[in-house]
Amino acid sequence: MDKSVKKIDDGVKISFMGEVKKQNIVTMVQNCSTGQCECMSDATKAKIQDMQVSGEDGAVELSLSGDISTQEIEEALAKSKVLNP
Length: 85
Hints:
Number of domains: 1
Radius of gyration: 12 Å
CATH topology: Gyrase A, domain 2
Mean pLDDT: 92
Number of helices: 3
């Protein structure tokens, strides 16, 4: 799986390509929104206002709204148990 993290006007957009299932990204978002993830700090979680998943298996996008940096998100992705079992 390849991923690309880019800064956008209202936050950060992550594009996942290749061997990625949309449901895995939805699961990651659900875990994060319910406080069941340990991939990002509480400070970073507090900055995220909204998370939207779009696309399909093999090409999934995750848009995060809020005052967050690409570095914060790249660090969280590296720690994600959903992406890195």
